[in-house]
Amino acid sequence: MTEPQITPKDRRPRMYPxxxxxxxxxxxxxxxxxxxxxxxxxxxxxxxxLRRGLEGTVLAGLAEALxxxxxxxxxxAVLAMAVKIARRPGVLAEDLxxxxxxxxxxxxxxxxxxxxxxxxxxxxxxxxALALAGLVLHGVLALVLVAVLARMPAExxxxxxxxxxxxxxxxxxxxxxAQAGWPGLAGGIFWxxxxxAGLIWGVSLAQLIRRVPPAPLRPLLAVHLAPAALFAxxxxxxxxxxxxxxxxVAGLVLLAVLAAAGRWIAESGFSALWGAxxxxxxxLAGGLLATGGLFRLPGLAVMVLAALAVPAxxxxxxxxxxxxxxxxxxxxxxx
Length: 335
Description:
By secondary structure, the chain is mainly α. It is built from 15 helices and no strands. It has helices spanning about 10, 35-55, 60-85, 90-95, 100-120, 125-150, 165-170, 170-180, 185-210, 225-235, 240-260, 260-265, 280-290, 295-320, 325-330. The relative contact order is 0.14. The mean pLDDT is about 95.
């Protein structure tokens, strides 16, 4: 058997595309990471809790000043995401294919509702408009998400704690709406979101009993705290004191469980998913303070804890945004 002859052509090295120089830079805001929004939502929630907890004290003005600054940062992030989606609308579906993107986009529309609460004392009409716009945007996002999940593998459609953000997040709008004199709509949102929240809690508990979640995803367990906290707030604002107390107790129990399992939850170390700790903690402080009575002192304690933890986590996440590091770590799509 004769050996194959090697021709000069065969000896040539394989050709690869020449590297770009200078390296190509993405267009402005083209890779805005949705992962910035969970921590921004947490910061807005913290501002609202501080407003409630510091009301009538000499520090009340400081809380308002902080929220004013936060609104500027939030508006910049919203502008960046809007430019990204306007540049190529299909990028929204691409971001929704990954877990950090799904959680981040849900937090983005929820943050519109939270911003309504921030501006409410100064511009009630604008606050109502923001809350209603947030509801519409969140509803559209939920429909797009369902369409995206329907085309993904079965394991991607499995219930996870982030589903609270996506399908229960409407409850955030009920807080400013109740305060603005729309108790009927706020109560309707309360009862409508109670059903999916209960289903997600039940399915998640069954999953937790069957198997241990992977360490990198365990921070998402903190999201289970947010609905209980928000239900307590809305119930208190709509005159349902017994329900508010019940959800306040549920929130404290969940916080105690999460704190007891804190080392296990944070086993994999810091990641962008730590943003899941921020809004639930701030929301619980607000819920306890809104319920009042015996819950005011625990509410102040949780408020102090949130004031220490939320900015620290938010800073660690947001400083990854410049330079595209956060986008790379969370697989953000590029427009």
